[in-house]
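The record is kept unedited without comment:

——
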Amino acid sequence: MNVQAWTFVIVGFTFTLYMAIAIWSRAKTTGDFYVSGRHVSPIPNGMATAADWMSAASFISMAGLIAFSGRDGSRYLLGWTGGYVLLALLLAPYLRKFGKFTVPDFVGDRYYSNVARLVAALCALFVSFTYVAGQMRGVGIVFSRFLEVPVNLGVFIGMGIVFIYAVLGGMKGITYTQVAQYCILIIAYLIPVFFISFMLTGTPIPQLGMGGQMTAEPGVYLLDKLDGLTTELGFDAYTDGSKSRIDLLFITLALMVGTAGLPHVIIRFFTVPKVSQARTSAGWALIFIVILYTTAPALAVFARTNLINTVQDLEYSEVPAWFTKWEATNLISFEDKNGDGRIQYYNDANTDPEFLAKVEAAGWNGNELTINRDIMVLANPEIANLPDWVVGLVAAGGLAAALSTAAGLLLVISTSVAHDLVKGVIKPNLSEKEELLYARIAAAGAVCVAGYFGINPPGFVGEVVSFAFGLAAASFFPAILLGIFYKRMNKEGAIAGMITGIGFTALYIAYFRFINPDADVAENWLFGISPEGIGGIGMILNFIVSLLVCHLTPTPPEEIQAIVEDIRIPRQTAAKAPAQDFEI
């Protein structure tokens, strides 16, 4: 069978499995729909959390971004994994003890204000829609290449799949579907890397292979080889990077604290029966996440090395089949600028006189190869000439990663609308049956909006997701952290801080990416910080405004301060502490 046949078989099997699980575990109550009835044990919840966490950005885009940015790509590894540790240890257990299963619910009750709840719900919708855009785009890319349909049609197919199991199953269906999706995505990620590591370095362990010597060139280390390849083409040495330290610092900070404020990850800690099991499931999730995250740098190194060796100075008439198939998706393209019929891939922005002399001597007339970073993981098995079934498996893994996170985000959107806006603010006397109906209608509407942004994304998958993390960092993290650890924080401070943080961050991103994209260069950035990292500044502004306003306005009621005191103590002693179990 060819690649397309294998893809149909493997993807068809996985989709059938997802549908069967959704039907078997369909939600019958709002408790099932929102938090899976809170009956999930720690290990399955850890797997589901890992699948929810490792989105299309982690599976499809992260290694591609590292492949092209080298050392600078460490910001994704440090930010996303560090942020998860921050969430698991610093926030999740306390939120779980508080007893509210959505971030807006926590904000509304902790800050004793429906206005605060409304602001938090709007922030959750804004962050979630930004994040889900990247997931739907990832789905479209996979379908476009491997099912040979247009990217936009691929997005529509993904919308249909997510609609069925997210709207029907709710959190209960999503949880058990995500367990299956984790198993599929991690197998699909690891198998090709094992193959390629063995082919290039003689060891099947990619983490060792990345730092090992090349089989074809004994005595030459793989990273040294890649450094040489990139510098010969006018790029920075792969192990050096080019971003400024302050920009790297703030991007990593935004990714880290944004992780701790992501509502679709936080909600997973409410699906286990006890607070202690929330901690245990967080530990299992971290183990499952680390398996992929420690492999991604090796995959990036293998992919970039193979790509350069395969296409540089190759006759276009002799390109391999994978090249022409990806060309059909418009995610890789060749323009013969000097008319010699050969592919010249190099950094034509390099102004070093010695390199320019080399370019002139070679007769090059500009870089001729344009590569979308999002194809590197998906194309990697084909570039390395691996068996067709491995290529189909990677396609299924990419879809599993994108769909698992998309489903979690859509649930957050539907919960924010039905539980936090409709029942929490507009119609408090809503019955359980009516609330479940509103939640499903909201999820259906969210699928449509997510599909639109998947068709018209504001950047690469990983880049779009980075914006979502920045928005979460600037809006939720200070409100949650201060709400848990600072009794003096009141509703006025929290509301002012959230509005300031997300407003500043959103405007900064919009200006440089949509209003005036020509100005999106380091010289024009505030303090040299790019739109990816501006969420760190937004978070700092949120903290400053929150603390300033809270000290200029009345203190919170005594009962609220008692609740804050109690959730930090590992026992139930305060008379006014919230119950361990919530009621819907």
About this structure: The domain at 3-303+386-462 is CATH 1.10.4160 (Hydantoin permease). The chain has a mean pLDDT of 81.
